[in-house]
Amino acid sequence: MALLEVVGVSKVFPGVRALDDVSFTLQPGEVHALVGENGAGKSTLIKVLTGVYQPDGGQVRYRDEPARFDTPMAAQHAGISTIYQEVNLIPLMSVAHNLFLGREPRTAFGLLDEKRMYREAQEILLRYGVTTDVRRQLGTLALGAQQMVALARAVMIDAKVVVMDEPTSSLEPREVETLFGVIRDLHAQGIGIIYVSHRLDELYQICDAVTILRDGKVVHTGKLADLERIKLVSLMLGRDMSAVRREGFTGFAGEHPDAVEAAPVLKVTDLNSRHKLHDISFAVRPGEVVGLGGLLGAGRSETIKAIGGAYPVDSGDIQVDGKDLKRPTTVQAVKAGIAVQPEDRKAEGIVAGLSVRENIALAVLPRMSKLGLVSDRKIDEIVASYMTRLRIKASSPDQRVGDLSGGNQQKVLLARLLATQPKVLLLDEPTRGIDVGAKAEVQALIDELAGEGLGVVLVSSDAEELVEGSDRVVVLRDGAVVGELRGDDVTTEALLETIAAAAVEAKEVGNDD
Amino acid sequence: MTTEAATAPRPALDLARVRAWLPKYGVYVAILVLVGYNVLFTPNFLTWGNLRIQLIQVAPIVIVALGMALVIGTEGIDLSVGSVMALAAALIPLYLGYGVLAALLVSLLAGVVVGLINGTLVARVGLQPIVATLALFVGGRGLALVISNGQLKDVRNEDLIFLGSGDLFGIPMLVWIAALLVLIVAFVVRRTVFGRRLLAVGGNRPATELAGVPVKRVLITVYVICSVLASIAGLLAVARIQSSDASAVGLLIELSAITAVVVGGTPLTGGKVRVLGTVAGALLMQLVVATMIKHNLQPSTTEMVQAVIILIAVYVARERKSR
Amino acid sequence: MTQQMTSEPHAAAVVAADERRAQRTDRVVGLVQRQGALAVLITVVIIASAVFPNFRSYDNAGTILVAAAPPALIALGMTFVIITGGIDLSVGSLYVLGGVVSAYASRWGVIPAFLLPLAVCGLIGVVNGLLIAYTRMAPFIVTLAALLGARGLMRALSDEGSTTYLVTNDAFRSFGTGTFLGIGYPVWLVVVVFALGMVLLSRTRFGHAVYAVGGSEDAASLMGVAVRRTKVWVYIMSGLLAGLAGAINAAKLGSGVTVLGTGMELDAIAAVVIGGTLLTGGAGTIAGTIAGVLLLGVIQNMINQVGNVPSSYQQVISGAFLAVVVVAQTYLVKLRRVT
């Protein structure tokens, strides 16, 4: 008997097929790993399972019957609970109140029995390794403890299925052990667990089965023990041969050999940010594309944002063209010639309500103006030139950027960055969520820009893109540099091996303990 | 050029189109309808005397609403404008002894100070705008009353009275000043670096920050401009009624200003500023009240009608946002 | 890697120390947040007692309490609204409207004099709540419109504010002026209502839903809290309490005065915030609100005692208090989160 089953489910958003004929089965008492890079469709699948989204096609079956969850509450009532990555509890309320919200024990008069609630909360949480005073505000606890409270709450409401989305991303090693203990308990009780994580060592330690998603499709499902690490990583990051045949490899031409001699245009030294980045150091020479490799959560996006002044850094040093910026603000970073293309285009990239023209000109308004007055002639010139150069398809420069396709939005964003005449270009998933044609164009553009002497840092979850696009690849894991691929070593195999090896090494060290 | 970019073919005349159109042009249509109605059915509507009164009454609201529109464009709100007016009004008689110019400068300076406080609380301390401006909403008028000792003071200065009651080429000075300020603000929004940055901040603050725009400075400047405009409205109010009454000047003006902005089609969610729409919004509300009074409806009824118009305007703007 | 591992026991000790420090910070900051207003109130009362001989008298204390009764009720409703993360700007108008309606209805007896204002103001609360909960319009704009609408209604009922209805019912009148154990009836009523409010907020599931909605609307709804229903109810309560405050005031003054109430909403907000309730929602106590209301009342009383000081100092002081408290709150909240 299958506990939870997804049969041929599809989900389409405007411009994206987030899930394409996905099937997946969870058995009672099974810990099932769900893996895939950002945009692979994991979160969409979870949201379909937990009633946040309704599937456009296919069926969800729960305990051998067709099921339809209209709201997250409906799914919860049926016994499917979710622990989100960002803890979804009320930070300002006490631990005990969070645990019992909506189900508080009451006295004969219908009033809350707080004494009993505190006592029971304390007892329950002890089993999850949380010893803190349950009267404390939840928000003042460490994230790991908060996660435990969320888990305890989920299990308390008679869950049959618990979905855990990156549960260990903010846990200390000690807390991870406690979590695994709880998972083993649940497993023994016959509760099914869907476990989303990118920490390979954890997956192999705790999970029975695995389903790998890529580009909205299931690329592998089966027993985890039968799957080699390297194979798992390549299934996640690599593209399958049919896609390569259809789309060709990438728009990248090749190496930029001139780069080796020159002095670095960007030098990052010992970048540290509490819990997220540890002593990150690397350098980029003019005309060189340096890839940042690693799995989700390895610290790639944080590194890029930190360089651009948009992520808090505790210590470290950033130099551009030999000029010491220490830890720049965003304003200083842009002035110094650092251009950041953030991963989340909608939230941090484009200003959707403004026109193509305003978006492109946003960062260079002072240069386009005299005494604070904007020269529309200058702006029109620069906008026209970038729209032609990047082949931005818009009905006119006055069109709202929010109405453009993803690829064209991305090009508008790149045009804004290039208009600042940067020395270093930091690109976080530049080809995510854009169509094949635009993808090749963006890749060719990156090549071209490097050819013109820009230093480029490239982050991509697509292994081929990263390998073909980069002259060197710096590999990160858990916020630290764990390897670097140079010259002939810049291959997909080497990249996957470094990522997998890093995980293995950690596993071994962990076992010594 | 119309390849994939001009995507999403829409059925002609569907709801979505009406929704997009309504907040943009609804206010102008409403004005036309009301004017048409008045021309036909209201006696003495189209007389110069009547129009003059209406314009003089609406001028201070327009001036305050301009600043409010800018603040709302950054996804903010400024509740303290009425108190700033009172503060400016209270300072005038105190410094009139040093000359009109000195008095005007001092009351404008008060606007700058209030704006700096509001802007700093919003941009640097990170308070919600409604919370940040609440303190001066409460305390500002109290301060004005303390300054003026809670007394009504007559102002007998020819130059100042000219600003409030004089004519230039047959049109009241107040109207000239308001029109000039409208042109200036429209110019600032459309033509200056600051104006464009302001819209970007309201549209997507993280993105604007990442683009290297000094977001905090932009925000502080916006609140300073808003307060200065309010203090201009305050000193003009003194000039018009020829006395300074800190307890009455600018009472509930924040409500009228927000109404004008919202009715004029500027969404409360930021990223857009409709300067002309704001002027039209203020005119429309003025017309509504005038029409009802001319037809012997009580002020109480006009207040209730205003309340309904505000709700409709906000509701319509909200619908558009959900796209 | 190895370095990380060898330092493991040491790290555990650090974590434990961190944890203890966090707990201590949490307790201290929480105490300041909750009891700050009370501490200031006590200090001010001590100073006032020392400086003004008249302040200490039993009569003066009674005066302060009776004067504070209507604002206290309004602040109680506002506390619930603000804890859900909303705001109700219409209460000042509702207070006046309630007074006028109550005075008018007093000709039919004591019960209508209480029930009619409750019904009218409660109904406007329903409209506020429904609009805010179901159309997702911003609370401040909805209640701002309600401020206008309620004022219009009040003026329509009172011939454009020119008619002041006198309370002719002696029983109702004596409710406003009479005393029990030397303390005015209104004060006793307020005490009872506050006791109920405290139980409701801290001892019922509804009360905790109120905190949850203000703490995080999304999380609350995922945790099964009826977010919309909770919101509607707090605005109804706020309307009802403003109406009740109006009725009490009508009984006290013996008439439905039409020119009061401007700025009442601000006094209420100021009292609530000074009492330690976060304007961003999710935290606050009724005890704090009591301290806030009394603090503003005592300051007003002191200003009156000094004589020849304009009573507008009251507003300046509330504004300054408000600014200081709000800024302090943001830092306190940040301090608590740094763990």
Describe this structure in words.
The complex is a heterotrimer of chains A (513), B (323) and C (339). Chain A has 513 residues and is an alpha/beta fold. Chain A has 18 helices and 22 strands. The longest helix of chain A is centred in the last third of the chain and has 21 residues, at 492-512. The relative contact order of chain A is 0.11. With 323 residues, chain B is an all-alpha fold. Chain B contains 13 helices and 4 strands. In chain B, the strands form 2 sheets. Chain B has a two-stranded antiparallel ribbon with strand order 1-4. In chain B, helix 2 packs antiparallel against helix 10, helix 2 crosses helix 11 and helix 4 (100-125) runs antiparallel to helix 10. Chain B is globular and about 55 Å long. The model of chain B is unreliable at 1-12 and 319-323 (pLDDT under 50). Chain C contains 14 helices and 2 strands, in the order αααααααββααααααα. Chain C has a two-stranded antiparallel ribbon with strand order 1-2. In chain C, strand 1 (179-180) and strand 2 (183-184) form a beta hairpin. The longest helix of chain C has 44 residues, at 8-51. Chain C is globular, with a radius of gyration of 22 Å. The relative contact order of chain C is 0.18. The chains are: A alpha/beta (513), B mainly alpha (323), C mainly alpha (339). Chains in contact: A-B, A-C, B-C.
In percent terms, what proportion of residues of chain B is strand? under 5%
Helix content of chain A: 25-40%
User: Biggest interface between protein chains, with counts per chain?
Assistant: B-C, 45 and 45 residues
Distinct helical segment count of chain B? 13
| SSE order of chain B, one letter for each helix or strand | HHHHHEHEEHHHHEHHH
Question: How is the main sheet of chain B built?
Answer: 2 strands, antiparallel
* Percentage of residues in helical conformation of chain B: over 70%
For the secondary structure, the number of strands of chain A is: 22
Terminal CA distance of chain B: 24 Å
Q: Give me the side-by-side strand order of the main sheet of chain A.
A: 6-7-8-3-9-10
Computed over alpha carbons, the radius of gyration of chain A is: 25 Å
Number of helices of chain A: 18
Mean pLDDT of chain A: 82
Strand order of the largest sheet of chain B: 1-4
**Based on helices, strands and strand pairing, what is the structural class of chain A?**
alpha/beta
User: Structural class of the secondary elements of chain B?
Assistant: mainly alpha
Which strand-content bin applies to the residues of chain A?
15-25%
**Overall geometric form of chain A:** globular
**Terminal residue distance of chain A:** 39 Å
Mean pLDDT of chain B: 82
